[in-house]
Amino acid sequence: MITVKLYSAVRKYGGKEVLFDHKDGITVRDIVEDLKIPLKELSIIILDNFDSTPDIMLDRIIKDGALLHLFPPMAGG
User: How do 44-47 and 2-6 pair as beta strands?
Assistant: First the structure.
């Protein structure tokens, strides 16, 4: 099982949390596409304890039991 946590504006694509069955070779990109989240709406992706920008994270393979966090661009001060 893969747990996906959605934050702020990307919650409109699935709520606060979505669970996915694990499949061999599943990537972050597969999850993002399945949720129909446009890439321009993602700013930071955290997979387990590693975080980076979507261009670096999208092709990472997700292991069973993983926790994936998807964040939109944020503003603040």
Answer: unpaired
CA dist., res. 25 & res. 73, Å (int): 28
Helices (H) and strands (E) in the chain, counts: 2, 5
Q: Where are the domains of the chain?
A: 2-71
3-state secondary structure of 7: coil
User: Tens-of-pLDDT digits for all 77 residues of the chain?
Assistant: 999 999 999 999 999 999 999 999 999 999 999 999 999 999 999 999 999 999 999 999 999 999 999 999 985 55
Tokens at 11, concatenated? 């919650």
Q: Among 22, 27, 28, 34, which residue's Cα sits nearest to residue 70?
A: 28
Which top CATH class is 2-71? alpha beta
